[in-house]
Amino acid sequence: MAENVIIIGSGPAGLTAALYTARANLNPLLLSGNEFGGQIALTNEVENYPGFPEGITGPELTELMKQQAEKFGARFETDHVSRVDLQKHPFTLETENGAHYEAKSLVIATGASPRRLGVPGEMELTGRGVSYCATCDGFFFRGKQVAVIGGGDSALQEGLFLTRFASQVHIVHRRSELRAQSVLQERARENEKINFVWDSVVQDIRGNGAVNMLNLVNVHTGAKSELPVSGVFVYIGHYPNTELFKGQLDMDDEGYLTVDERLHTKIPGVFAAGEAHDHIFKQAIVAAGFGCMAAMEVEKFLANLEFQGYPVNITNAAR
Ligand code: NAP
């Protein structure tokens, strides 16, 4: 039997959609992807999610969100959706674990993934000094020199986190002005372990089995320089995880899904929430808000289906 609603993705958008649809007695199923929690689960300190004045770690926050949704009857499966067919209703989904689902409505909360530099050495040395997650890998760089690439919130926040382990953190930025919010800029400038390398981009990453050198180029003078480091943490933004929907849903040139102000895609019953469509705010709290909005629209969509005589299975799971 078709599920009322399947939510794809387990970041704040998906988890909030699960909470709201569960509390509406819609018995939602959330397919979490292979790793639970999305990008925020890779963040060590979340200081700007309301309700946690002392801050909270990303994994703790997402675990609490999951527990809250489960309390009202949301179901979770650790599985990665590999194929969707949105051309006929109910929609069909296939997963990497070989499961097959049908869904009357869908919330796409697949989020975004870190962008890569695309320079020689990056792929070969990923996991051998090149990383996209300071929370996961910072510990391995105790007493070592590392570089962080980027000048946004992620670069500074994770660069600051890395100062707990590394002897020095070089923040390599392609301009001489940071994009990051001022509170992070101040903290980074005051931290003695942080050194800024301005107006520079990475030409290649070198190392024999493990990173030992970055080759940099000054974007104004063309001057080349070497930076001896053991780790390179890349924080140059993200791209939306929407490949799965190419050819079926509208998206912009960067792959962000096109939705209206109520988060409807062009296919009735298919909604998007979070960084799969939001290329502006990209904050956990905003993603959670979008998850709530999508869930409320799912409710209306299913109520309308029911009105048309299509069975919608309401549960009594909420308590
Ligand atoms: P971002 O804001 O898009 O910043 C990416 C940075 O990488 C920019 O400084 C950009 O330089 C640089 N960059 C992009 N492509 C590059 C390339 N090919 N080579 C070298 N540098 C490159 O990405 P983000 O820092 O991951 O943040 C994403 C979103 O999450 C933002 O909206 C941010 O506010 C949010 N966020 C918030 C927090 C928080 O609230 N504490 C923490 C993390 C992230 P330019 O500046 O020159 O463009």
Overview of the molecule:
By secondary structure, the chain is α/β, with parallel strands linked by helices. The protein has 2 domains: 3-114 and 238-308, FAD/NAD(P)-binding domain; 130-234, FAD/NAD(P)-binding domain (3-Layer(bba) Sandwich). The chain contains 6 helices and 17 strands. The chain has helices at 12-23, 58-71, 134-137, 153-162, 182-190, 284-307, and strands at residues 3-8, 29-31, 75-77, 81-85, 91-95, 100-108, 112-114, 130-131, 145-149, 168-172, 194-197, 200-206, 213-218, 224-227, 231-234, 238-240, 270-272. The strands form 4 sheets. Strands 1, 2, 3, 4, 5, 6 and 17 form a 7-stranded mixed sheet that branches. A 5-stranded parallel sheet has the order 8-15-9-10-11. It has a 3-stranded antiparallel sheet with strand order 12-13-14, with no helix packed on it. α1 packs parallel to α2 (58-71). The longest helix has 24 residues, at 284-307. The mean pLDDT is 95. NADP nicotinamide-adenine-dinucleotide phosphate (NAP) binds next to α4.
Structural class: alpha/beta
Mean pLDDT over the full residue set: 95
Low-confidence blocks of residues: none
**Principal-axes shape call:** elongated
What fraction, in percent, of the residue positions are helical?
Answer: 10-25%
Tally the beta strands.
17
Number of helices: 6
Instruction: Assign the CATH superfamily of the largest domain.
Output: FAD/NAD(P)-binding domain
Q: What gap, in angstroms, lies between the N and C termini?
A: 24 Å
Determine and state the CATH class of the largest domain. Answer: Alpha Beta
Oligomeric state of this protein: single chain
**Topology order in helix (H) and strand (E) letters:** EHEHEEEEEEHEHEHEEEEEEEH
Please summarize the sheet with the most strands.
7 strands, mixed
At CATH level 3, the topology of the largest domain is FAD/NAD(P)-binding domain
| Small-molecule binders | NADP nicotinamide-adenine-dinucleotide phosphate
